[in-house]
Amino acid sequence: MAQTLLTPGEQYRTLTRYIQSKLGRNLFLVCGRSFSSTRVGRFLEEWTRQNGVELVQFSDVQANPDYESVLRGTERFQAAEYTAIIGAGGGSAMDTAKCIRQFSSAAVPLLAIPTTAGSGSEATRFAVLYRQGIKESVNCALPDAVLLDPSTLNSLPLYQRKATLLDALCHGIESYWSLGSTPESRDFAGQAIRTIVGCYPGYLNNTPEGNAGMLEGAHLAGRAINVAKTTAGHAMCYQMTKRFGLAHGHAAALCVAKLWPFLLDHSERCADPRGRAHLERILEEIARCMGGSAPRSGAERFQAILDELELEVPLPSSEDLAALSNAVNAERLQNFPIRLSKGEIEALYQEIL
C-alpha cells in the first residue's frame, strides 16, 4: 500500500483536505499529553471544533507501549463509531495507534503525525508492544497517510535530538547491510543516510531546514527497515536501554559503532547467500553514503559523529555484561551478515561499554 505524504503547507490545507475527503467526522486521536501544545495539535483542536468534527483524545500512551494500555485504548475506540484514527507523537504513540487499529480489526484509515525524527514508526508495518515487561513485535498495517511537519520538532530536548538522529542513522545503516535488504530498501536507506549526515548539524541547532531534513531522513530510514528490518545493532541494544536507562538510539549507536569494524574485519565469514563480494560492495556503498571513499571510512565517519555528540557511556559490572549477552534478541541477530557466537557478543559488549 502506498502511503499519502502530507506536508504542513499553507495553514495545513493538505491536512484539512485529507481529513474532509478520507477521515470523516469522528476522529480518535492517540497522542502524548504534550501534543496539544504543538502547532499542528492546536490547529487540529481548533479546526475540528469550528467544523463540527468530533476529536476524542486518548493519551494513555506509555514510553514503552504497554499491552494493557493498548487494550484500554481499543475498548475506548470500540465504544463509539469512530471513522478514523490519528496517531501523533513519538514511536510509542504511533505504535499504540497502530495496535489499537489492529486489535479492533477496524477498517478505518490511520493518519500518523510523528513529533520526533528517529523511530520511523510512521513508515513501518511493525509495532513494539510490551506484555508483562516482555517486548513483542506486532505485525500491523501501515498508516494510510503521514504528515511530516518540522515544527513538531521545535521543542525537542538536546539529548532526545542526539538519540533520535542516531536511531534514524542506525536504521539506515543496519537496513542497508541486512540480509533482508533489497534494491528498493537500499535505495531508501542510502537516501536516508545521505540526508541525515547532511542535515544533522542544523537539526542539533534546531533550524527549520535541519528539522525538515531529519524528519525526511527518519521517514526514509523507516521505509527501509519496513522491508529489510534491523540487525545486530538493535538486537544488542534493547537490554542496554533497559539496564542503563539509555535512550534507544543512543544504545543502538554504541552497538553499531563496534559492529561496523567487526564486519569489515570478518567479511570472509559472510553468511549472506548473496556472497562476500556483495557484502563488501554494500559496505563500500554505505561508506560513500556517509561521505567517505574507502569502506572503512564509513565506520570512521560514524564514530566521529558519535564522538562529536559527547554522549556518556555507562560503566557496567561483570554481572551486567553477562546479563546483556544472555538477553540478546536472537531474531534480529539472524539479519546480520555474519553469525555471531556468544563469546563474540560478550567481547563486543566489553568493547561497547
What report would you give on this structure?
It is a single chain. Helix content is 56%, strand content 11%. It contains 14 helices and 8 strands. A hairpin with a 2-residue loop joins β6 and β7. α3 packs across α4 and α9 packs antiparallel against α11. 47% of the residues are buried. The model has no long low-confidence stretch (mean pLDDT 95).
Low-confidence stretches: none
The rounded Rg comes to 20 Å
Query: What is the number of strand segments?
Result: 8
Number of helices: 14
- SS content category: alpha/beta
Distance between the termini: 41 Å
Q: Please, what is the average pLDDT?
A: 95
Proportion of residues in β-strands: 5-15%
Q: Largest beta sheet, briefly? A: 6 strands, parallel
How helical, in percent, are the residues? 55-70%
Reading side by side through the largest sheet, how are the strands ordered? Answer: 1-8-5-4-2-3
Described by the principal axes of the CA atoms, the overall outline is: globular
The ordered H/E elements are EHEHEHEHEEEEHHHHHHHHHH
Give the SSE map.
Blueprint: E1 4-6, H1 13-23, E2 26-31, H2 39-50, E3 54-58, H3 67-78, E4 84-89, H4 91-104, E5 110-114, E6 126-131, E7 134-139, E8 145-147, H5 158-177, H6 183-204, H7 208-228, H8 232-244, H9 248-265, H10 276-289, H11 295-309, H12 318-326, H13 330-333, H14 342-352
Parallel strand pairs: 1-8, 2-3, 2-4, 4-5, 5-8
Antiparallel strand pairs: 6-7
Helix pairs in contact: 3-4, 5-6, 5-7, 5-9, 6-7, 8-9, 8-12, 9-11, 9-14, 10-11, 12-14
